[in-house]
Amino acid sequence: MSGSGRRLAALLWVACSAALAQDPGGAAAPAGAAAAPAKVAICAACHGPDGRATIQLNPILAGQSARYLFLELRDFKAGRRSDPQMSPIAQTLTVDDMHELSNWFAQQQPPRQNYTPDPQRVRLGQAKAAETLCSMCHLGEFKGQNEVPRVAGQNRDYIAKQLRAFKAHTRTNDAGTMTSVAGTLSDADIDNLADYISNL
Q1: What does the alpha-carbon distance between residue 67 and residue 8 come to, in Å, rounded to a whole number?
Q2: Fewer CB within 10 Å: N-end or C-end of the chain?
Q3: Whole-angstrom Cα distance, residue 162 to residue 166?
Q4: With helix as H, strand as E and coil as C, how does 87-142 read?
């Protein structure tokens, strides 16, 4: 890990710890639930203290498949997936950290979307999802399974960003399915799918 990467991770850790200190209730678990892992603090600035990211370009982690979250963290650390913020942070995580964080976020309740989709895009996105057989992997209601992510209710701009990354082959840490599917999509298809899926 480079010196600049270590500095970024350290700065994010300090900033997130400070934010949680100012709002200690933000990461509080329900009665009887497991306490949040200490390293949740490093995730809070981008994903929220409970994984309910409000920044549209950042993914919601709450309610995501633990298997999927672990594999993505592992890929960020190994360099199979790259992001200016996530890559250096992943370098600071052990395998145990990754399992602990993944399991905790998977147990959190995903939020309802605040994004108001375009009805026409939703209709076209639903038709495109059926045409490309998205539910074969993401299952009914797009809730995901194992290493296939839950995309229902995911942030709209994040969905569009990832579909474009798969289409451009700037994200390739999949078994080839998403790069193949995304290669068939137009920019309009991607926008329509993002409106439809985020609204589920």
Answers
A1: 27
A2: N
A3: 6
A4: HHHHCCCCHHHHHHHHHHHHCCCCCCCCCCCCHHHHHHHHHHHHHCCCHHHHCHHH
How far is the C-alpha of 28 from the C-alpha of 37, rounded, in Å?
A: 11
**Sign of the C-alpha dihedral computed for residues 76, 82, 129 and 52 taken in this order:** positive
Distance (Å, whole) CA 94 – CA 105: 17
Give yes or no for a contact between 161 and 57, defined as CB atoms under 8 angstroms apart.
Answer: yes
CA distances to 61, 155, 192 from 186, rounded to whole Å, are 27, 20, 10
Q: For residue 148, give the 3-state DSSP assignment.
A: strand
Task: Write down the pTM of the prediction.
Answer: 0.82
Q: Could you give the angle at which helices 187-198 and 119-131 cross, rounded to 10 degrees?
A: 100
Amino acid at residue number 63 = G
Query: Amino acid identity of 75?
Result: D
Q: Comparing 111-115, 144-148, 152-156, 176-180, which segment has the lowest mean pLDDT? A: 111-115
Residues facing residue 148 across a β-bridge = 145
